C-alpha cells in the first residue's frame, strides 16, 4: 500500500514539475492581469513540490532500510526477491506499465529454492496486448541479464518454457539464521505504526454463547495476536448485543421475580431459563407484553432503575462469557451496541441531512450503491436496529478511534449485512477503501460429525462451557492412555491437560480455511498424528528436549549462535534452514488475506521438515554402549533452536500455550 502512495506522489511530482517549468517560461505567459495570480500559484506549487520531494526521498530511504538492512527484523526473502526481480523486469520491458511479478518458493528443491514465472505471464498476456510477440525464454534471459547486484541470489537459470529458477546463496541463508538466533524472532519491519480494530466474539446478552461465537473468539484472538506481533496498535472489541427490545421483557420479568433487585443482587443462576420464562410470558400474557414495551422505552430514556436492572442482567451474562474467555486466554474489551446509543441519533441525522434516507411504510431506510437490500436505520416504532448500531460503530472506529484497519469476525451469514453497511459508509464519504481497510472476515458454520449443524444429542445448542469441559476430560483420558500421569507431577499433568484440550480446540478451528464449514470432532483434534495441535505440541516438546538431554544450557547455545556458523551442507539442513526463514512471508500473506490456516499449514510443514532433518542428521552423537554423549554437532543444535523459536512464535500467534513437559 505504501508503495502505491509513493508511485502516486512520483506522478504528482512530475506533473507539478511540468507545470512549474511552464510557469518559469515567460514566453508562455502573455502579460495579463492573471500574472500575479499565476506567480502566487507558482510559489505555492514550488512549496508543495518540495514537501513531496522530501516525503518521497524519506520513503525511498525507508524502503532501502526495510529490505537490505533489516536491522534486527527478519528478512522477508520472497519480498526481497520480488524487489530484485521487479527491478530486472522493469529494466527488461520498460514498455509495460505494470509488469506481472510472480516469485514463489519452489516446491521441488532440485529445481532451485524460489521460482519467478513472470516471463511467461508477460509473453502470454501483457506483451501481445501491446502488439508485441516475444518468446518467454527470451524475456527470461533479458530479466536475468538485468538482475541488479544483490545479497541473495547465487544463480538464476531458465527452465522449460521460461521459468526462472532461483538459487539462494548459502552464506546469506546461514547469516539470516544466525541473526534469528541472536535477535530472537522479530517481526518484519513496519513502515508506520497503524491502528487496527478487531471486532470479534461479540455474543448476545441473556443468550447462550454458541459455537459460532467460539469460532469468532478463536479467530479474532489469533488475528489480534498476529497484528500485535507485527507491531500494530490493536483494539480488540467485543460488540456484544446488549441493547435490543428483548431487554424490555427481561426487565419486566426481573421486576416480578426479584422485586428487591434494586437493593440486592438477584441469584439468576441460569439466564437462559430466565430468558425462556420471560419470552413465554411475553407471548402469552397481554399485560406483560404491554409492560415489557414500556420497559424498553424507560430503559432507552435511561431511567436509573431500568439501567440498574439492565446492568444486572448484563453482569450475569458477562460472568458466563468470562468463564469461556478465561479458559481460552482471550483478551477483549467490551464495547457493546448500547455504547453507540447516542451516536445512532447523530448518524441517522447525517444520513437524513445528506438526503440519503427513504421512507418505507414508516421505516427509514438507506439504499447503498450496488446493493439491492437497504439498511433499516429507524424502525417504524422509532427504535434503532443492528444496522444503525453498526453504522454508528463504524463511524466511531473511523473518526474517534482513527483506525486504519477495521475487521469484523462473524459467520459468513452476516456478509451481506456488512457489505451494505460498508457501502453506505463509503457513499456518505466516511472512508475511502484505498486508504482505510474495512473488512468482514467471515467464516463457515460448525458441523457435528454427522455433517449436520452442531447440536447436542437431544437437539439443543451445545453450551460452550460444556464443550470446553468435555475437551478437558478427553484430553486427560488421552494423557492417561499414554501413561503420562505416571511420569508427570499432578501440576504438570493439569497444565498439559489444559494446553492440549484448549490448544486442540483452537487449532482445529484455525487450521481449516475459515471460509469453509468445519466438522467439530474431538477424536480428530486430539489425535497425535497429522496436522493437529496434539502432534505439534509433542513435536515441540521433543525439539526443546534435545538440548536439555545433551546438557546444553541456554547460555552455551547463545554463545554458539554468536560464534559458530550454521552449516547447511546436508540437503536436509538446507531444506530446514530455508523453511525456517519463510516465516515472514507466511505472515505477510496472512496479513493480506486474513486466512490463518496458512500459519497452521506452515507450522505443520516446519515440524515435518524438522523430523526429516532430525532423522538423517545427528545432532548429538552418543556411545552405543554407554549412552554417553561423545559429540555435539553445535550447528545442528542451532537449527533445532531456530526451529523451536519459530514454532513457539507460531503457537503464540495461534493462542496455543505449549508446556515444558507433557
Ligand atoms: N452479536 C452479533 C451476533 O451474535 C455479532 C456482532 C458482530 N459485530 C458487529 N459489529 N456487528 O451475531
Automatic annotation (TrEMBL):
The record places domain DALR anticodon binding at 536-662
Chief location of this protein within or outside the cell? cytoplasm
Q: Which PROSITE patterns match?
A: AA_TRNA_LIGASE_I (PS00178)
What keywords does the record list, in alphabetical order?
A: Aminoacyl-tRNA synthetase, ATP-binding, Cytoplasm, Ligase, Nucleotide-binding, Protein biosynthesis
Alphabetical list of NCBIfam families matching this protein: argS
Which family is it part of? Belongs to the class-I aminoacyl-tRNA synthetase family.
Q: What is this protein identified as?
A: Arginine--tRNA ligase, cytoplasmic
| Organism of provenance | Sander lucioperca
This protein's encoding gene: rars1
